[in-house]
Q: What sequence folds into this?
């Protein structure tokens, strides 16, 4: 039996849409757990130029303004100029 195999991986750098999406999902998770640590969260974020889509399943008693959390996160990580494609 041959021990040869192909190994691949993907890496994305800071500012990549996947990194932005991860930051938003993490911020939503943190905001929910801050209010209700027993929450069940499967938050997904999809991004493109000028677009953020929040998706997933959330079971919680927390009251979170998801849009504001997403906007605050986008600004916090440096997208504070409409020329960047997110407003």
A:
């Amino acid at each position: 039996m041959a021990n040869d195999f192909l190994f691949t991986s993907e890496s994305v750098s800071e500012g990549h849409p996947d990194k932005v999406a991860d930051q938003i999902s993490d911020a939503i998770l943190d905001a929910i757990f801050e209010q209700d640590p027993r929450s069940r969260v499967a938050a997904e974020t999809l991004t493109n130029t000028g677009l953020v889509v929040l998706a997933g399943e959330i079971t919680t008693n927390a009251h979170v303004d998801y849009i504001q959390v997403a906007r605050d996160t986008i600004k916090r990580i440096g997208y504070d100029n409409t020329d960047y494609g997110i407003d």
